[in-house]
Amino acid sequence: MNGLNSSAPRTDAPATFKPIAVFQHTEVGAPGAVIDVLEALGREARVVRVVDGQEVPSDASAFGGLVFMGGSMSAHDSWPWIAQELALIRDADRHGIPVAGHCLGSQLLALALGGEVRRHSQPEIGWCGITTETSQTADEWWGAHAGQDLQTFQWHADTFEPPAGAVRLAHGAHCRNQAFVVRDLHLLVQSHLEMTPALVHLSVERNGHQLARENALANPAASRYEDVLLDLSRRTQSMHLPLLRLYTRWTSRCR
C-alpha cells in the first residue's frame, strides 16, 4: 500500500494493548491492506487462517478487536466455523470488544447482532460507487471522506439488513446497505476497501466467470469485464485512505 506510512497518523501502541484478530476465510478473501492499516496505527494483527483449518477461538477477551474478512460462502451456510464465528462475535459484543466486518464479514456481524442476511436482487461485482453519509456520526468515522462519492471494489451476491440501532455510514446505487456502525463500536463494510492489485487479479482469475455471466445478463451492478483490471494501482490506493480513516476511529475503541 504505497504512501500509507507517510500519511498515516501513527501511534505507538502500549504493550498492554491486545492483538487484533483478523479472520481469513478464503485465499481470495485475504486481508490485503487491512494488515498495513492496522500496523500503521500501531496495532498488532494476528491472522486466523480459517481457510487452512485454523481453529476459531471461543473467547474474544484475548483480543483487542476482531476483523472478519470476505468469502464466497453465505452467512447462512452450515460450515462449523460460521457458527463458531457468530458465537465469537456475540461474545465480543457482550464484552464491549469492537468487531469489524468486510463483505461476508459484515454479513456475519449483522446476523450475529440481530440483523438479517439475504440474497440480493442482483450480484454487485467490480468497481461500483458508494456515497458516504453526512451525519455527525458519518463525519466522525469518515472525516474528510464524509459526503463523498467513492469508487469501491465489490464482489457479493448477498446483502444484509443491519441490526436495530445501527447508523448508516454509506449507501450505494445498486446495493443500498454499504456501511454501518453499531453503538459507535462495531463497523460493517459491504465493499472491499482492502483490495490490492494482486487481490483484484486473483479475484478475476478465480471468479471471473461470474463477472462474465453478469455481463452477458446486462447486470448494471457488474463492471465490464475488460474494465476491472485497469488502473489498479490508483484505484486500490484510492480506497486505502478511507479505510485508514475508518480504522483510525475503530481501533481507538480497541483495548
From TrEMBL:
It is an enzyme of class 3 (hydrolase). The keyword Hydrolase applies. PANTHER family: GLUTAMINE AMIDOTRANSFERASE YLR126C-RELATED. The keyword Hydrolase applies. CDD domains: GATase1_1. Residues 34-198 form the Glutamine amidotransferase domain. Keywords: Glutamine amidotransferase, Hydrolase. This is Type 1 glutamine amidotransferase.
